[in-house]
Amino acid sequence: MHDLIIIGGGPAGLTAGIYAVRYGLDTLVLEKNVIPGQISTADTVENYPGFSSISGMELMQKFRDHAEHTGVRIQSADVKIVRDEGNKKVVITDDGEYEALAVIIATGANPKRLGVPGEDKLLAKGVSYCATCDGPFFGGQEVIVVGGGESAVTDALILSGIASRVYVVHRRDELRACSILQKRAFGTENISFIWDTVVQEIKGDELVEKVVLKNMKTGELTEMNVDGIFIYVGINPNTTMVDVDKTDVGFIKTNDRMESSVRGIFAAGDCRRTSVWQVVTAVSDGAVAAISAHEYITSIKYDQ
Amino acid sequence: MHDLIIIGGGPAGLTAGIYAVRYGLDTLVLEKNVIPGQISTADTVENYPGFSSISGMELMQKFRDHAEHTGVRIQSADVKIVRDEGNKKVVITDDGEYEALAVIIATGANPKRLGVPGEDKLLAKGVSYCATCDGPFFGGQEVIVVGGGESAVTDALILSGIASRVYVVHRRDELRACSILQKRAFGTENISFIWDTVVQEIKGDELVEKVVLKNMKTGELTEMNVDGIFIYVGINPNTTMVDVDKTDVGFIKTNDRMESSVRGIFAAGDCRRTSVWQVVTAVSDGAVAAISAHEYITSIKYDQ
Questions:
Q1: B241 exposure class (CB count in 10 Å sphere: 0-12, 13-18, 19+)
Q2: How, if at all, do strands B109-111 and B73-76 pair?
Q3: Which residues of B touch A161 (CB under 8 A)?
Q4: Interface of B with A in 191-250 (CB under 8 A)
Q5: Which domains does chain A have, with CATH numbers?
Q6: Mean pLDDT, range B278-287, rounded to an integer
Q7: Best mutation site among B302, B303, B304 for testing chain A: the one with the most A CBs within 10 Å?
Q8: Separation in Å, CA of B51 to nearest CA in chain A
Q9: What does the pLDDT look like over A230-280, one tens digit per residue?
C-alpha cells in the first residue's frame, strides 16, 4: 500500500508529488495522457512567475523534470474509480488496482469546445478559453467573445482593457451574467454586442483571421475579421471517478486545506471549485493538498 | 492617481504586479529593501515547480526580471501608513505620498530570531525556520527543533520522516502544542525531548556543527553535535502600516479572494492569515489578489 496516490500529472498533481516526496511519503502519480495539463496546450505562458515567456509544453516539461528529479514516480494509467474504504483508498484503473492511505484528485478540467471547423486547428493561434491567460497577446487588436454567462462577460471586461475592441457574440438576445456585470459591460465604450448569433466557423491560415457568424433568427451568414476568439460555453471537470461532494457541473468542493467531503480524499487545481484557473493557483493547491495529506497520513499512522 | 499600489516586492507582490499590468492597470510596486522576499535568504529552493534547485536569491531575481519585463514599475520606498479614504487609498511613505484606487499588502513576515551567537552567520547553513522548505536537505542527519508550540511540533513530525533523529529543545517541561500533536510526537520513535533547556549558541565554521544548550533549572551548559537547527519561537508579519482586521499577532485576515475587512485593500502572501508559508502559495495569493483588485477597480470605474 502506498502512502499517497495523486491522480493527474498536471501542474497541481506534480507539485503535490514534489511536496509529498520531500516529506518522505511513498507517493505515486497516475496520469492517463502522454502530455498532461491543460497548460500544455498554451502557445505562450507569460504569467507563471520566474519564466517571462515560455511555451505551455516547455513549462509542463520543466514541471515533469523537476518532479522526476525529486523522485516522484509517474505511471501511465486511466483511473476509473476511487473507492473509499476508510483508512484505505482503492484506485481502480484500466491497468489494475492500487491502494493508498490517501488520494489527491488533480485531474483538471477542460473548457467545452464550440465544435466548429477551425477551432482545434487554431487553438493557441488566436483561439483561447481564458482572457487572463491570453488576453495580453491581443493588445490593440480586435477580438470576439463567445457566450453570455458570467465567464464570458467577466473576460470581455478584462479584454476591453487590453484589446482595441471586443465583440460579444451570444446566441440569445440577453446575457445570463449577473446584472452588475451586464451594467459594466454595457457601459464600456469598446464592447459591442452581436445578439442571436453563433459562430459557425473559424478561419485562418497560421493565425485566426476571420469568423463566420450565423444569425439564428434570419439564418444570415456574415464573415467578420478578428484577431482572436475567446470561447466561454462551459467547462468540464474530470471528476466522475470519485464520489465526493461536488457542484452541479462536477467541480469538487473543498475547504482551504483542499479537503473534500471524504476524509483522506483531497482535491487540487482546476478540478476543484474555485474562481481562478491559473497555473499559479494550481501549483499552490497541489502544495497545500500535499501538506494536508501528509498531516492526515501522519494521523492515521500515529493515532491508531 | 494610480489604479493599484502593491506594497512589497517579494514573490506575492511581484506576481500581483505581473497580473495587474497584464490587465492594463496602472500599477506601482513599493519595496523598502534592496533584496526583498524572505525567500531570498534561502540557500537552496527545491520546491518551487519549474526549478529543481535554485538559490533563493536567484529565484527572487528571476521574479524581478519577469516583473520588469512585463512592465511592472518597482520603486524604493518604506511605507509608513495606508490611509483608507473610500474610493481612494493614500499610501504615505518616507519619500512622499502616493494615491491609488486599490492597495495590495504583500509585505511578508519574518520569523523571530533566537538572538544567539551564530544564528545569523549560519542562516541557511543549517539554521532554518521552516521544515517544509529545508527539511529534505537533512536526510539521515540529526537536527534539533527549538520551541514547544504547534509549529515546532508540526515541523518536528515532518523532520522525523526525513532526518535520522530529531531533538525538541524546549524552555519549559511541557509542550504548548495541542494534545493530538503531542501524542503523535511522543509516539514517534526518533523524536526525543530536551526539557527546561534553551539554546545559548550555535557553532560551526561553514555549516552548523554544534549547539550550546543551557539547562534553565541547573544552569548547566552542554555542547551537542547537530547538523541542523529549526527555530520556532514566533513570526512577525509586517502589517503595522495598515488598519484592517488582523489576528492577535498581526496577520491580516482575508477571505479566499484576498479581500481584507476594508473594501479596496487586499492582502497576499506571508503577511495574511494562512497556515502555509511557501513561495507557491505566495505567488498564488498575489495572482488572486490582483484578479480581485482588478474586479474592484473595474467596479469603481464603471459603477459610479
A1: middle
A2: unpaired
A3: 23-25
A4: none
A5: 2-110+235-303 (3.50.50.60), 113-231 (3.50.50.60)
A6: 97
A7: B302
A8: 6
A9: 999 999 999 999 999 999 999 999 999 999 999 999 999 999 999 888 999
